[in-house]
Automatic annotation (TrEMBL):
One of its GO terms (biological process) is cell-cell adhesion. One of its GO terms (cellular component) is plasma membrane. The chain crosses the membrane at residues 150-174. This is MPZL2 protein. Residues 24-140 form the Ig-like domain. The lineage of its organism: Eukaryota, Metazoa, Chordata, Craniata, Vertebrata. Residues 1-25 form the signal peptide. InterPro entries: Ig-like_dom, Ig-like_dom_sf, Ig-like_fold, Ig_sub, Ig_V-set, Myelin_P0-rel.
Amino acid sequence: MLGRAWLGAALIIGAQLRALWLAAAVEVHTAKEVVAVNGTNQRLKCTFSSSSPVSQQLSVSWNFQPEDLSSHEPVFYYLKEPYKPPSGRFKERVTWDGNIERNDVSIIIWNLQPSDNGTFTCQVTNWPDVYGTIGEVRLRVVQKVNFSEIHFLAVAIGSASVLMIIVVTAVIICRQHRRRARDRRLEVADTER
């Protein structure tokens, strides 16, 4: 009977410790989707929160999964200092733009190309918080920025305003022309009397 009590207590304590362990995990936050123009630079923002203070063992891994779902590629690594990739498509095209003290582990990708379309993942471990979420950012590189509805509305309002100014100006000019013509007729009529 005593063995069962110990077993039950151990299971309850284990469940509580597991719940605390999961609650202590690192949470990573990213934008879900980013659209950028071909040839430009783009900051991929990644921030994190941890129940532990930032440790000297904090590490950050950025990886890339192309749209064609070929193998993952390393993009960037941080452990006490930033490490650029020694080879691959992002060699000489990625720089660290984070601030560990502000829980920011962002990077900048330079000279974006259509082949950069895909999903970037940001993973942070902050000892003893070694488990947690992995942030994902889907990057879409486009040839040019699409005309948004707000831009269309602004152009439509601007065009309508210009058209109204032209119409009002034309009406004013016509009225003045008619008034002058009427005044001339009255002068001619007065002179004939």
